[in-house]
Amino acid sequence: MDLEARAHAEHPEALRLWLRLLTCTQLIERQLRAALREHFDTTLPRFDLMAQLERVPEGLRMSELSRRLMVTGGNVTGLTDQLVAEGLVERIGVEGDRRVWRVRLTEAGQRAFADMAHAHEQWVVQALEALTPREVDTLHRLLGKVKTHVQTLQGVATPEDIA
């Protein structure tokens, strides 16, 4: 049973929309996880870690990776250990602090991630191909409006940011 099944006609439409968004997210994520496992023998967390490193070629400190991925340092260490063992990432000492490491993709990691990222992109496009380009644009714009509103409620954005 998916999240939408929990909502009934007497619930506010906004709640039913929220549950629809969650259901769609879970369905697409499940599809991506399975495809990454099947085609690349990898996991979504490993893909996400490599995606963060791809954006910063000089590498990231372990603490920054943890913050960006919103997981504990222990999780990042475990993923990094696996990827180092496979030659996809490397640890580099930080000058002036022997306790801190930067992690970056190796050349093999860059090639492997490029292949995964291309496939990932195609899978996401395929998952959303039921929508016309105009519908995608409209949905993107509307969700952006929701995002800005929620950020305003949280004090992250100002009302002027919404305009």
State the gist of this model.
The chain is mainly α and 163 residues long. The chain has helices at residues 13-40, 44-55, 62-69, 73-85, 107-127, 133-153, 159-162, and strands spanning 60-61, 89-94, 97-105.
Give a description of the structure:
With about 160 residues, this protein is mainly alpha-helical. The protein folds into two domains: about 5-130, Orthogonal Bundle (Arc Repressor Mutant, subunit A); about 130-163. Helix content is about 65%, strand content about 10%. It has helices at about 15-40, 45-55, 60-70, 75-85, 105-125, 135-155, 160; strands spanning about 60, 90-95, 95-105. A three-stranded antiparallel beta sheet has the order 1-3-2. A hairpin with a 2-residue loop joins strand 2 (about 90-95) and strand 3 (about 95-105). The radius of gyration is 19 Å and the shape is globular. The mean pLDDT is about 90.
Topology, please?
Layout: H1 13-40, H2 44-55, E1 60-61, H3 62-69, H4 73-85, E2 89-94, E3 97-105, H5 107-127, H6 133-153, H7 159-162
Antiparallel strand pairs: 1-3, 2-3
What descriptors fit this protein?
mainly alpha; 10% strand; Arc Repressor Mutant, subunit A
The CATH homologous superfamily of the largest domain:
Winged helix-like DNA-binding domain superfamily/Winged helix DNA-binding domain
Mean pLDDT: 91
The CATH topology name of the largest domain reads Arc Repressor Mutant, subunit A
For the record, the CATH architecture of the largest domain stands as Orthogonal Bundle
Order of helices and strands: HHEHHEEHHH
Count of DSSP H/I helices: 7
Largest sheet: 3 strands, antiparallel
CATH class descriptor of the largest domain = Mainly Alpha
Number of strands: 3
